[in-house]
Sequence to fold (213 residues):
Amino acid sequence: MAGHMIFTMLSVPKRRRGIVRKRRERMEAAGLMMQMDGSPHRWFGNRKHCLIAMIDDATSEVHAEFFPSETTVGCLKVMRDCIETKGVFKTLYVDRAGIFGGPKRCNFSQMQRACEELGIEIIFANSPQGKGRIERAFDTFQDRLVPELRLGNITDIAAANAYLKHVFIPQFWRSHIEVKSKHQTSEFTPLSKHTNLDDICVIKDHCKSENRN
Fold:
């Protein structure tokens, strides 16, 4: 019996400890940094849709909407909703996907152009851990929102967005997820009366001039 126990103990492989990553401290004030990303998932019904979301790094206040897929138009719309609600923020923290003008795409980026026109700096994350705030937000959405949409028999995008914006975010997110920032002074800047979002948060043609003989 003793020999059997020794053999069993020796034969059990040791578990490797995962790399412990220290979470980055939150920004000290709201509006200093917004993180943005899209999450394709079967949020409702049988088809995949993309939840595009922005989250304030300091407070976890979220702005989100469902779209058929992750597109520039969807990202521009969510950013516009945030600006119309809160004001212009300082920096946008995103991954290196081409939609944001990262090095994987050399074509003209509408998101990058819109941010430049608004005075918003884009910061590219070097790893998924860098934008952990938005990644954890999507985990919460999947854990809590998906079951609620199923219980409500919600299977279309219009009803899902209505529930997300008028029920889930006000009743659950704001009371359970949002936190107070270290500094109560907001860094959001009111939108100038001379700034027209209709001319900024849209797809613009980028034509290259050609010299012809």
User: Anything to note?
Assistant: The helical segments are 2-11, 72-86, 110-118, 132-151, 157-176. The longest helix spans residues 132-151. The longest strand covers residues 33-41. Residues 2-20, 208-213 have pLDDT under 50 and may be disordered.
